[in-house]
Amino acid sequence: MSIKKILVSQPKPANDKSPYFDIAKRHNVEIIFRPFIKVETISSKDFRQQKVAIPDYTAIIFTAKAAIDSFFKICEELRITIPDTLKYFCTTEQIALYLQKYIVYRKRKIFHGVTGKLDDPTLVQYIAKHHKEKFLFAVSDIHRDEPNPLDRLNIDYTKAVMYRTVSNDFAPDEKSDFDMMLFFSPAGIESLLKNFPDIAERDVKIGCFGNYTCQAVRDAGLTLDFSAPTPETPSMTAALDRYLTEHNK
User: Fold this and answer.
1) Residue 81 burial by CB count (10 A; 0-12/13-18/19+): exposed, middle or buried?
2) So what's the pLDDT on residue 44?
3) pTM of the prediction?
4) Which of 27, 154, 163, 170 gives the lowest tally of CB atoms within 10 Å of its CB?
5) 32 phi, psi to nearest 5 deg
6) In what order do the strands lie in the sheet with 109-112?
């Protein structure tokens, strides 16, 4: 089967420097960017039910830009004044810089990691140094309750669900004639099954990023054609390029 049309279940890159565009030209394929999921801030009513009093916390942890948007939106709806003394801990510099949308960056105590993971050594060091703070950890409704460095460091923290991931449903007249689909989260696979319950009967190749996403494909009874990261293909674009090189002949 020759691959001609590929769906990438992510938003379209902001500029033309993305490797996806180079792949499209090199292999003469059409790449469509169309997320299967979208993020929504939970309602203030749902947040109140968690019985979390934001003013009681002196530090907050963000692992995604969506968490930042949701935090400030909830604070606005609940008319909560965020003190200038609140400390911000982010898993990447990009996420930390996104705070500029809401606060005067240079006038706040902001710390960030490098790898994007909560157990990033740099971030863990910052958190350990401020272990006396009372931390609020902004998470989504599908976060995983796994051991994390906050437990290991005996940090006083509370998880608060601030946003949820929902299916970004296809419209009845929206085309779905793809030869391949690429996914990046288990939620994306759930949305795939909801939108296309007959997907197992279609001749569509599936590529995934991350172990949890790959397992979701297998659990759904679908065939996983390739995945990333691997030692040979550390990114989804590298895995896609290799697959097309080997199969589009």
Assistant:
1) exposed
2) 94
3) 0.71
4) 154
5) -110, 130
6) 37-41, 156-167, 134-140, 59-62, 87-90, 109-112
